[in-house]
Design brief:
heterodimer; A: mainly alpha; MetI-like fold; 2 domains; two-stranded antiparallel ribbon; 14 helices; about 75% helix; about 5% strand; globular; B: mainly alpha; about 70% helix; disordered N terminus
Chain lengths: ~325, ~280
Amino acid sequence: MTATSVDARTVPAGKPRGHVTNRRAGVGRLAFLLLSPSVLVLGLVIGYPIVSALRISFVKTTEGIDANTGLITRTTGFSLDNYTNIFTGETGRLFWNAFWNTTTFTVTTVVIETVVGVCMALIMNRAFRGRGLVRASILVPWAIPTAISGLLWRWIFTSQGIANDVLNTHVLWTTEGIQSWLAVVIADTWKTAPFIGLLVLAGLQIIPAEVYEAAKIDGADAWRTFWRITLPLVQPALVVAVLFRMLDVLRMFDLPFVLIGRGKMSTDTLSILAYNEMSNLRFGPAAAYATVLFVYVAIVAYVFVRVLGADIVGRGVGRSK
Amino acid sequence: MSAPVATGRRRRGAGWLYYVGIAAIVVYCLAPFYWMVVSALRRPADQFSNALLPDPPSLDNLVAAFSPGNGFGRALLNSVIVASITTVLTLILGISAAYALARLEFRGKGTILSIIIATSMFPGIAVVVPLLQLFVDINWINTYQAMVLPSMSFALPLAIWLLTAFFRQMPFELEEAAQIDGCTPAEAFRKVIMPLAAPGVFTTAILVFIAAWNEFIIAVSVVNKNELKTANVIVSQFTGQYQFDQPFGTQMAAGVVVTVPLVIAVLLFQRRIVEGLTAGGVK
């Protein structure tokens, strides 16, 4: 990764001269020593896969029978086939379907989760007894492994399950079709809306009470206060929360995989499609799907950071004091 | 999390509607989990009963979950091994990297931090596909390291980010004082910063462990031997007596076992977890 080269430049190769340079070089060398293990590991588990996936996705393996010996021969060569196959024909249909599912899941769940999360945060923002209990319960959906929550919702949505019982319906939720799509949305919303609520709550709590008092004196009603004061002030926290949720849903795998199963037109995501190819040892197409997904995620992240100004780094570093 | 006192004083007359809202949140969050526990405690014969309490309660599902054929006990051990090793390695690497990023001045710092944060957005499947092919080549399929190493791809950026935020919060005078007293930067780190950073490190450890414990896509891809599968994977693959009969009762019981340690951790460390989540803003 580029990080290594950037870092390496900060450490002068020769013996440092003079006291100040000596000290600075010492700090630079220390930083290099401290950072390089992490950069090395990330290079191995992130950098290598990016490069390797790109390489694999352009390689096509063709099996044939040698006319002279009658043995199976394997030839590999550079080819764009994996990509052209993604966008055309029967595989193209599967791809665009998965692309559509991934996108609709992302948009729908993030919108619902944001609205529900903000409502939860507004309720929790008022001091009350038993705050700890509510906070603990709001962490429960977050803490449950997604695969286990997928099983839990599969059980809730079985034909004779509690969902049909409560709704007084006989819907086959976990088979195929719009209801399966909806089941995934519901399960995902349950798991992550409280998490958004938690992040928004943290943003709400740093709004000084004086701002609200001033609004009250100016005669603003609750509705107006929310739109003109609360929302703009909580926006930085909200944008980051929404960005992370979006990136998380774009790569969604566990939930539809366990809740509905793979090979379903209504719920297969890009991750599941890539997994399918991989489990059939077709690494070329799998890598092509993975690369397309990676590019998609990168574009969304870029748009968020550049257009909406999601200040991710600033949050992590806390703007040095 | 600092709870401002002012908020409470501002709106005192809460009213019943407000408590309805609180109750709705608690029910929303806990009802599905409650259903998992209740379903786990039913007799297998009552499995499809939708009564709100198990009547009579029974531990049969729990016993069935641990029946030798399922390999669930071993899977739990595997989960503990993989999540623990991942957490320890991540902390060792993460602490040193975060210390450099938070406390030392050097060129290219912003770039490195941005890249590390960007890596946390990387889709898991894009890590798994190339690494699986690599692991096939070097015979790493069905090994612990094949699960631990790829897990660093999400655990390490998370840890570095959280730890950097925690290290930043400490006053810079600390090291200066230590250096005036004759400490080298390394000694200042070990003797002054680390003891004070312990709570932040602990919070990071909890969050990384939970993330590693919940991991699914890597574990389901690089292991196909039952003896090495993690709990999440093996529970999702439990088979019933008949091929198409999904043993929900057993799965719910196993799910409760997998989840209960996390719920206990949440109850014990909720303050820290919330502090970590809101410092990092990550899952």
